[in-house]
Amino acid sequence: MSSTSPLNGRRGVTIAVTSGKGGVGKTALTVNLAIALAQMDLRVGILDADFGLGNVDVMCGLTPLSHIGSVLSGEKAIGEIGATTVCGVRVFPAGNGVRALTSVPGGPWARLQSGIEDLSTTLDYLLVDTGPGIGDTALRVARATDRALVVTTCEPTALVDAYAMTKLLLTRAPQREVGLVVNMARDAEQGRHVARQLALAVQQFLGASIRYYGHVERDARVAESVEAQRPLMSLGTECPAARAYDRLARRIAPWMPPAAREVAAPMPVGMMSAEEFARTEARSCA
Ligand SMILES: Nc1ncnc2c1ncn2[C@@H]1O[C@H](COP(=O)(O)OP(=O)(O)OP(=O)(O)O)[C@@H](O)[C@H]1O
Ligand SMILES: [Mg+2]
Hints:
With 286 residues, the chain is of the alpha/beta class. The chain has ten helices and eight strands. The protein has an eight-stranded mixed beta sheet, sandwiched between helices. Bound molecules: adenosine-5'-triphosphate and magnesium ion.
């Protein structure tokens, strides 16, 4: 186990990266956040749960040996699917163009859930990239993890869909903690503004809170790195998005699995009530 590993014999943390709206940057965030966490000497994996349309391996320039389909079919255990790695991050691909995987029925679902649990015993962090939409698969994946990070951009359509996803996550589990990342923001102020809008809606209509973890700037380097199939965080580039991924990783690194919450380090960003938000986020984003 790595020296900074928070496991101490316990299971790691599983985190779904989800959104509602497609194309908001979930996969880019998942990949770069995972690498940033791995660069902190943590054991990290990515499970691509955008079944049948997986992009994680493509974004990382990997040639997968097999995909999650063989786990869902019961052919293999998740640990046997021959994960490839990028910058030390183990990648469990979703398969691409496999139509049978686009809708996961009951039986295979149980296998996937126990696969996620299995992986959590060998990793400090398992990031689970979900597909777009609020359909059964994306929701089930998000609910099967310890935590959810909802990603939105600053566009009202993305915000409305992020609210829809948050609502569905909290409806069945009101105590669940939902985190928020605002991607493709102009700057910290715009990120905070968008987060405040969502927080107010969540508070007003759901009587709940979300935690804002920060923003990632719109940065052409992200798109360039996707084109080059080399994740931004693997390049050592100094740019706003790379700094943002690193900052987010530092905020997430103290997360603990549910059983270990009593010993968890204090969260870097406070539970975001409307009043508290401006103070806390301004301080932590400084
Ligand atoms: N911070 C950013 N700045 C600029 N471009 C970005 C940023 N984040 C993501 N992108 C670009 O946005 C596009 C969509 O990103 P990505 O594939 O990660 O979205 P997604 O939410 O996973 O999409 P889907 O819902 O289809 O899975 C990509 O072309 C990527 O390069
Ligand atoms: Mg994606």
